[in-house]
């Protein structure tokens, strides 16, 4: 039996989010659940697909004015995450269609998703192209902006000042939110690597979308590591990989 289950304040404690579900006692998992609790009143939706009462995937999306992605636009829903662990059954398309239909019910202009072929931290572009999304713009470091619009409406768009953003940070700086439970692990790995090189790291916990839009070094929004005005990473690195990247800039 296939069922789509929408998380809410009542069932979140019992069922929890799908992300990092294998480590329900981890700090990242707790942070993610707490982050979700504070977002329901903003219109965030977190939908799990259940296959015979077992989680098989999920989609998370929210109105653009509360999104954790650095993208501009009016009256869109933004998909943060889409992931399924059971392939070949159309679950990803089912979740995407759920979001599209919800956007129509809410009288939105359409749905946005940001992809990047260089990392698994963003959804795969192919399944969105299959579901009639159109790629309309690209940004540095491999980011792609895709949209599904409901008419001849203004396109969403990326910021254009990516280089200027990097110039603000000469010291090792980690910018993050708790939208992804793996951010905690990613942060720890960079700090451990930096400590071995006697490099001090500063953590900036982005407090709202306004700050995220202003400071994020990539469209991904929720995590970025900068050192000597260079982007170190926007996704999790191992301690060894973090050290290697930092050494290149020392």
Provide structural commentary.
The protein is an alpha+beta fold. It folds into 2 domains: 2-149, Aminopeptidase (3-Layer(aba) Sandwich), CATH 3.40.630.30; 162-247, Glutaredoxin (3-Layer(aba) Sandwich), CATH 3.40.30.10. It has helices spanning 12-15, 27-37, 91-105, 125-130, 162-166, 183-196, 209-215, 239-247, and strands spanning 2-6, 45-51, 54-63, 76-84, 110-115, 134-139, 143-149, 172-176, 201-205, 223-227, 230-233. A 7-stranded mixed β-sheet has the order 1-2-3-4-5-7-6. It has a 4-stranded mixed β-sheet with strand order 9-8-10-11, with helices on one face. Helix 6 links the parallel strand 8 and strand 9. 41% of the residues are buried. The model has no long low-confidence stretch (mean pLDDT 94).
- Shape label: globular
Low-confidence stretches at least 5 residues in length (pLDDT < 50)? none
Number of domains: 2
Share of helix, binned:
25-40%
Radius of gyration: 18 Å
Computed structural class: alpha+beta
Order of helices and strands: EHHEEEHEHEEHEHEHEEH
CATH hierarchy class name of the largest domain: Alpha Beta
User: Mean pLDDT score, rounded?
Assistant: 94
CATH superfamily of the largest domain: Gcn5-related N-acetyltransferase (GNAT)
Q: Widest sheet: strand order?
A: 1-2-3-4-5-7-6
- CATH topology term of the largest domain: Aminopeptidase
Strand content: 25-35%
Gross CATH architecture of the largest domain: 3-Layer(aba) Sandwich
| Number of E-type strands | 11
Number of helices: 8
């Amino acid at each position: 039996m296939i069922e789509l289950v929408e998380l809410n304040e009542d069932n979140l404690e019992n069922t929890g989010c799908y992300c990092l579900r294998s480590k329900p006692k981890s700090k990242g998992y707790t942070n993610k659940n707490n982050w979700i609790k504070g977002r329901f009143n903003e219109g965030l939706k977190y939908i799990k697909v259940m296959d015979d009462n077992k989680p098989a995937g999920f989609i998370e999306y929210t109105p653009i004015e509360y999104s954790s992605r650095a993208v501009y636009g009016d009256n869109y829903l933004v998909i943060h995450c889409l992931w399924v662990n059971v392939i070949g059954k159309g679950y990803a398309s089912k979740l995407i269609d759920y979001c599209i239909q919800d956007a129509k019910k809410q009288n939105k202009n359409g749905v946005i998703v940001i992809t990047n072929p260089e990392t698994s931290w963003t959804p795969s572009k192919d399944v969105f192209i299959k579901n009639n999304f159109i790629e309309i713009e690209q940004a540095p470091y491999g980011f792609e902006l895709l949209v599904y619009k409901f008419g001849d409406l203004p396109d969403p768009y990326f910021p254009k000042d990516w280089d200027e953003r990097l110039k603000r940070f000469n010291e090792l700086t980690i910018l993050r939110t708790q939208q992804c439970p793996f951010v905690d692990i990613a942060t720890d790995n960079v700090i451990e690597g930096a400590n071995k090189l006697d490099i001090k790291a500063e953590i900036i916990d982005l407090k709202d979308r306004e700050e995220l839009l202003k400071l994020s070094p990539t469209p991904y929004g929720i995590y970025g590591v900068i050192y000597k005005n260079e982007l170190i990473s926007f996704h999790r690195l191992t301690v060894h990989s973090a050290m290697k990247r930092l050494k290149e800039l020392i």
